[in-house]
Design brief:
mainly alpha
Length: about 80
């Protein structure tokens, strides 16, 4: 094996290592973007859930008032 062949093999090994590191870096960047989007969705879903809970409490209060009103009207008659 001539010295030039060794340099070519070394160059190929370095190129493969740089390629593998580049792919891992790219995967890390994509995963970070996905994580950011997921975090935003969690915040949005939390707000929607809080609003739904507030609406359910409001509807329950209105229903309780209507039931109370009906029971009191029946007592009067």
């Amino acid at each position: 094996m001539e010295p030039a062949d060794g340099r070519i093999i070394l160059f190929i090994i370095i190129a493969l290592a740089v390629f593998a590191l580049g792919r891992r870096f790219q995967n890390m960047i994509v995963m970070r973007q996905v994580w950011k989007q997921s975090a935003k969705q969690v915040v949005a879903r939390k707000e929607v859930a809080q609003n739904a809970a507030k609406s359910m409490i409001g509807i329950t209060l209105v229903a309780l008032f209507v039931v109370w009103l009906v029971l009191n009207l029946n007592r009067v008659m």
